[in-house]
Amino acid sequence: MKFILGILTVLLFTGGLAIAQTQPVSIASDDNVTKSDDREHHNFGWIGLIGLAGLAGLRRAKSEDVRRLEATGINVKSV
Q1: φ/ψ (deg, to 5) at 19
Q2: pLDDT in tens, 57-70
Q3: Largest Cα–Cα distance in the chain?
Q4: CA-to-CA separations, 67 to 57, 60, 72, 79, in angstroms, rounded
Q5: Which of 2, 10, 23, 38 has CA 20 to 30 A from 71's CA?
Q6: Taking the model in full, what pTM does it have?
Q7: Measured distance between the N- and C-terminal CA atoms of the chain, rounded to whole angstroms
Q8: Cβ within 8 Å of residue 50, ≥6 positions away
């Protein structure tokens, strides 16, 4: 269940970022304005945020001592 919720969260997050990057529709009809390259106005900074979110899975694993103590029923808080 956690996996499905995680996938849905990622999809909503990336979808929201994609919508935030779209250019607003111009109502004015300026025929004299030349179209520039879209990459000039596109911000790729959100890719770094997704990369940082991916690092969350790289947390340190519990040591063998902590696992052994937890198996005996002792409450161990890691720092």
Answers
A1: -65, -35
A2: 777 777 888 888 88
A3: 77
A4: 19, 13, 9, 15
A5: 2
A6: 0.29
A7: 28
A8: 13, 14, 17
- Count, residues in the chain: 79
Residue 18 or residue 40, greater confidence: 18
CA distance 22 to 41: 10
Q: What is the DSSP string of 2-57?
A: HHHHHHHHHHHHHHHHHHHTSPPPP-S--TTSPPPPGGGG---THHHHHHHHHGGG
Using an 8 Å Cβ cutoff, are 50 and 14 in contact?
yes
Please give the share of the chain, as a percent, with pLDDT higher than 90.
Answer: 0
CB-based contact 13:38 (threshold 8 Å)? no
CB 44 within 8 A of CB 60: no
